Amino acid sequence: MQDVPLDIRQTNDSGFVITGTSNSFGMQGNYDVYLIRTDKNGDTLFTKTYGSALNETGWSGQQTSDGGFIVAGNWGSSGYSYLIRTNNVGDTLWTKISIVGICYSVIQNADKGFTVCGTGGTPQATSKDLFLFRTDSMGNMLWYKSYGGADLDHGK
After folding, report:
1. How many angstroms separate the CA atoms of 54 and 77, rounded?
2. What distances in angstroms separate CA 51 from CA 46, 118, 124, 138, one per listed residue?
3. For the residues 98-103, what does the mean pLDDT come to?
4. What angle do CA 131, 70, 17 make, to 5 degrees?
5. d(CA 56, CA 63)
């Protein structure tokens, strides 16, 4: 079994949210997004996994203005982005899956929507570009832009 932390951010109360991937809790042999919430002393407040029978990874997470969390990552193959929005105890409010690429970073905007950065293209594409997209507060995509050339361009 393996748990892999990939991102850590401080929360509003000086605790921490750790995002990553784990095959310790999901279906045998498959990885799920792993979210750990601690207090300021590092004591665990909750751990949650999110996923399916495919392999998922949470690359970035942060506390939202209402005390919940937003996680960005990939769902299944490398061509699918995965956004997970939770409440303050990690219960899922919504998930969004899009065929734009791996989401490596997410921030909440002043309007309560989100901006996501990653590396994308369809799974069959021979090159990948850096992408940036913006959503509303429910994760619905408002716009999408890609940047790069013929080579692999990372957005992290």
Report:
1. 8
2. 17, 19, 23, 19
3. 88
4. 115
5. 20
Tens digits of per-residue pLDDT, 32-90? 999 999 999 999 999 999 988 889 999 999 999 999 999 999 998 667 899 999 999 99
Pairing of strands 56-63, 44-50: unpaired
Note whether 61 and 105 are within 8 A (CB).
no
Report pLDDT for 29.
Answer: 62
Q: Which residues are within 8 A (CB) of 41 and not within 5 positions of it... i.e. 6 or more apart?
A: none
Sign of the Cα pseudo-torsion (30, 3, 131, 92, in order): positive
Q: How far apart are CA 7 and CA 18, in angstroms?
A: 6
Which residue matches tokens 């991937």?
Answer: 21
| Cα separation of the two ends of the chain | 27
Contact present, 74 and 19 (Cβ < 8 Å):
no
pLDDT of residue 121: 66
pLDDT single digits (tens) 101-128: 889 999 999 999 999 999 886 555 566 7
- 41, 62, 58, 40: which is closest to 49 by C-alpha? 58
Q: How far, in Å, CA of 84 to CA of 52, rounded?
A: 13
